[in-house]
Amino acid sequence: MSSPIRSKITGMGLNVPKKVLTNHDLEKMVETSDEWITTRTGIKERRIADDGVSSSDLALPAALEALEDAGVRPSELDLIICATSTPDRMFPTTACILQRELKAAQCGAFDLLAACSGFVYGLTTADSFIRAGSAKNILVVGSEVLNHLIDWTNRDTCVLFGDGAGAAVLSAVEGESGIIDSRIHANGEYSDFLMVGTGSANPIKQDTFENKDHYVKMKGNQTFKVAVNTMSDVTREILEKHGITPDDIDLIVPHQANIRILNAVGKNLGVSEDKVFINVRKYGNTSAATIPIALYEARAEGRIKDGDLVLLVAFGGGFTWGATLIRW
Ligand SMILES: CC(C)(COP(=O)(O)OP(=O)(O)OC[C@H]1O[C@@H](n2cnc3c(N)ncnc32)[C@H](O)[C@@H]1OP(=O)(O)O)[C@@H](O)C(=O)NCCC(=O)NCCS
Predict the structure, then answer these.
(1) Does the annotation mark 285 as catalytic?
(2) 4: DSSP letter
(3) How is domain 180-327 classified at the CATH fold level?
(4) Which residues form ligand 1's pocket by a CB distance below 6 Å?
(5) Can you tell me the distance from the alpha carbon of 265 to that of 18, in angstroms, rounded to the nearest whole number?
(6) For 239-274, how does the pLDDT look when each residue is reduced to its tens digit (9 = 90+)?
(7) What is the dotted CATH code of the domain comprising 5-175?
(8) Is the pTM of this model over 0.85?
(9) CA–CA gap between residue 308 and residue 15 (Å, rounded)
(10) How many CA atoms lie within 13 A of 122 on its CB side?
(11) Catalytic residue check, 107
């Protein structure tokens, strides 16, 4: 009997802007300090895209690197999913621009908006296509140019976010390695805890602009608590479903929003700190891009080996949250 088809991450790519904005730079912009930002968030610096650089511009080099790493030609792609809260435009989608720039097959291409959970939602969707037999190779990208959504005079939010992109190619394989399972969740009751308030319900007009509704607004404290609880709960949920204990996990690669959130999740789950990959120090919160960037760096640093059990866990505006369990 042949083994079941699984989706395996066969290639990864990374692209972050060159421009670095440090906490000391922010001290000159708002009333804050390196000490406050470091102790409250773990962030030291973040990358900022130059004016005129869009999410597809950041995504393209990451996508090309992931395809080359996977040994998959753009013409062999069956689907392109771009997880982003900062698309180039409302439409055409960033995924369509990527399809054009990659000279990919005329495969399906769509943007996926689940805020910071976008990459895990994207992997979950791609995995379903592959398991159903309707795709063999799928490009999943997380790409964000968040700096235009940030009010750079508001210290509550401007210290937290950054720009960047990461990409993964998922391919259909037989055998034990690949995505074991994913769980995704949402609760719109929390919608006003973390939002960018403009859209069809609140179109950009003079008053919405003056009210800064087009910028990220957040209830930091409340968001923090829900993030810790939901990321802990969804991890327990997926592990219990598969009879796995936290000890069995070789590496957790979580959404990088705040080091204190990650430490609290680790403590809740009883996992040692060395099993949680953290790079928020260098990039801040790049929303849908944090997990593919972190996964890329974890592999590059030798923190993930063939056969390892890796858990991705995300949380974001909506609220949305989810986890993906992978046998590498
Ligand atoms: C935003 C966050 C870092 C704030 O940390 P906190 O410990 O909750 O701090 P508080 O909100 O209680 O604020 C404490 C004080 O610091 C001040 N403060 C806020 N931002 C500041 C900054 N950048 N620099 C200096 N002081 C700041 C506040 O005004 C407040 O002052 P007050 O006590 O005089 O009113 C934290 O709540 C957080 O990380 N939340 C989750 C955010 C997140 O990850 N969102 C994305 C999820 S995908």
Answers:
(1) yes
(2) P
(3) Peroxisomal Thiolase; Chain A, domain 1 (3.40.47)
(4) 32, 36-37, 40-41, 116, 155-156, 159, 194, 218, 220-221, 223-224, 227, 257-258, 285, 315-316
(5) 31
(6) 999 999 999 999 999 999 999 999 999 999 999 999
(7) 3.40.47.10
(8) yes
(9) 25
(10) 35
(11) no
